[in-house]
Amino acid sequence: MGRMDGLEAVGDPVRRRFVELLARGERSAGELAEHAADEFGITQPAASRHLRVLREAGVVVSRVDGQRRVYALDRAGLQEAASWFDELAGFWEQRLDALGTELVRGRKTRPHRTSTHSTREAS
Q: pTM for this one?
């Protein structure tokens, strides 16, 4: 999975909800479809399409267990997206720390302004 594939896949609220549910453990396609129907009003075929998108993006894996398909999170696939977020967080943390330092430094060195009024003499 490419980083963007996984991120794009979880950009949809139904698929994000599936990821949240699967974070608690494996679930059958039927259970996930039931949640999607209750929460989003979508049909079982629509839920299956969402699960296929997640599977193709490497966000989830599935296995057949008798008559049902069981889904679980693909930790390796999710790790790629998590690494990308970590890189972004590091980038912004450095800049925000530098900004904070400059703001503190500015407070210490900024001269106090005094109010000066210039008066013009009438000629």
A: 0.66
> What is the CATH number that goes with domain 1-108?
1.10.10.10
Higher pLDDT among residues 63 and 104, named by residue:
63
Instruction: State mean pLDDT over 50-75.
Output: 94
3: left (phi over 0), alpha (psi -120 to 50) or beta: alpha
What mean pLDDT, rounded, does the chain reach?
83
Closest CA to 60 of 123, 93, 96, 17: 17
- The answer to whether 30 and 49 are in contact (CB under 8 A) is no
**Structural domain boundaries in the chain:** 1-108
Tell me, rounded to whole angstroms, the distance of Cα 2 from its chain centroid: 15
Tokens standing for residue 108: 């210490």
Question: Distance between CA atoms of 34 and 43, rounded to whole angstroms?
Answer: 9
